[in-house]
Amino acid sequence: MGSFSAWHWLIVLAIVVLLFGRGKFPALMEDVASGIKKFRREMPFEDAIEQSNDDPKHG
User: Fold this and answer.
1) What is the pTM of this model?
2) Interatomic CA distance for residues 56 and 59, integer angstroms
3) Which of 22, 25, 29, 50 is most buried, by the most CB atoms less than 10 A from its CB?
4) Residue 53 near residue 59, CB atoms below 8 Å
């Protein structure tokens, strides 16, 4: 049970296109990409807060 072949991925892609249609699929991928971008933008903010809380000068 190794990895999928190219034929498997083509079949999965065809099913996704049939389910979502050609117009909805790019919009879905755009939403996923914007979610990832928002997540990455928020991550450094949390790291900066943790670093400032660990800093003995400010505590």
Assistant:
1) 0.41
2) 5
3) 25
4) yes
